[in-house]
Every structure is written in C-alpha cells, then in structure tokens.
Amino acid sequence: MSKIKFIVDGNITEWARISLIALGFLMLILGLALDSLPRVIALALVVLGLPVAAIGGYASRAKALGLKPFDNSYKKARESYQVKHDDQDKSQ
After folding, report:
1. What's the longest Cα–Cα distance across the chain?
2. 16 and 52 Cβ atoms separated by less than 8 Å
3. 3-state class of 8 per DSSP?
4. How far is CA 18 from the centre of its chain?
5. DSSP character for 1?
6. pLDDT for 54-74, tens place per residue?
7. CA–CA distance, 39 with 72 (Å, rounded to integer)
C-alpha cells in the first residue's frame, strides 16, 4: 500500500492545491447561499473558507515561482549562524 503524499519537494502537491482552492470556495459559497444553516455555522464556513482557498492559491503561486515554502532548508541556515565556542573565546 502506497502512502498519499501532500508535500513533495517543499511544496503542496498539485491535487492538494486544487482541492484546497475548491474546498475553500465551496465553503464560502455554501456559507453564503444556504439559508437553512444556523447562522453560526454559516459564518464559520465563510470565515474559514477564505483562508483555506488562500493557502491553496499561495501554494500554487509559490510553485509557479519555484519557491519551496514547506522545505526544511532554514535549519541549515540557522546552523550556519551559530557561533562555535572556540571562535567565541578567540574574539574576547
């Protein structure tokens, strides 16, 4: 059995991006269109639908620009700025 991957090469996969955008817009439309829903649930759908669609949209834009927002490369950069104890003693 193969695992379903959501993040590949530092970005969300194409099917997940499209699903996030579609789900976000569906939540927004349902929250605004269905009068039979309780007011609190309709408001929650509208408020949560916009960020869900935005995450999918921003991930799509990042993929188009070649960015990797879900990559762990920041750890390498953080380690490169750490001061070694020997270098710190010499500077004093």
Report:
1. 72
2. no
3. strand
4. 13
5. -
6. 999 999 999 999 888 887 777
7. 41
